[in-house]
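This follows on from our talk about sequence and fold. Please put the record directly below this note.
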Amino acid sequence: MTKYSIALNSTNLNQKLFIVIFLVSISNLYCKNSLEGKWFCHKVIYQDGKDLEVNHPLFASFLSYEFTSGKAYISINYEEKGVSSKYTVLNSELHIGIRKFSFSFDNKFLVLKEHGDELSYYFLRKSDFLIENNLYQETYFIKENDTIFHRSFSLNPEFYYETSFSNYLRKSIYSYSKTSAQRHQLKGSFVLTRNNEILDIMVEQGINKSFDKSFRKVVQDSEKYWKNSTGKNILIVQKFNFFEQGKYFIKKENWDFYHHVKKADDYYKTLDFISAIDFYEQALDTAISENEFTHIMLRDMSRNLGISYLATGKIEKACESFRIVGDEHDFNFRNFLLKFCK
């Protein structure tokens, strides 16, 4: 073998290596382009194909992944953009921050399996997700000859900013940090028109003149970040609940409610569903008038109570419990109602 044949073989090897690297790069780019956009979790199952248990936190929940410009936004609330992390695609693996996933495409589905996890997540793009789950919801009211639609999953304007709208407010309202350490509740709203204009900023339940004024200004300034592609005027509602430590239980009904729920939660965690039912029912009897504190706990309580009823074979009571605060358009209750309460 001459030095020329060695050089020729080396050249061929380099060419083959270049082709392999090129093909891998093209494959990674194709996979990354295929991921781009927003995906909504349609179902979660075990990797062996078994369904989740009804008391699994992901049995009824919302989860979305959005891949854009090298960032992945993971959200558990369709009104929020979610938490962002850098993502990369390498050799058919998806890396989101320090997390690693294998992924594949099965017909319309994006299937994610996180390394070290036993679950498979099936995602759909929004148009397919809406069709598969029949989540079209349009409720509205008339105000001064204008039709205003309530925000829903199918009528959901996007907030294009580095963080969610609620975090944008927290960051931008001057006295937010100071106010959040005290007991307060704010409920505000505004109309985002079909032309992406913000109108009718209201503070239905305010904190003080300074905070409320700042809220209105920050909301108005956020107009440039909103994109309303629904073709309709949408009512956006924003709430903040602030609690001062040690002052939850001013009223006796709050203390009793809290005590019963916490006791029930302890039994629920140990799968003692009969005892959990007893204390959850006592909590329901004490929570006669809903306030900002009981409202926060009521959602989790009605879900856990419903699951406890399911575990003890009381299907009708379970459905009643789920419907205390939820319906088929509420992701935290939807799967229970569809499977057990038809």
About this structure: The chain has three domains: 36-130, 140-242, 252-340. Confidence is low (pLDDT under 50) at residues 16-28. The CA atoms of residues 187 and 239 lie 4 Å apart.
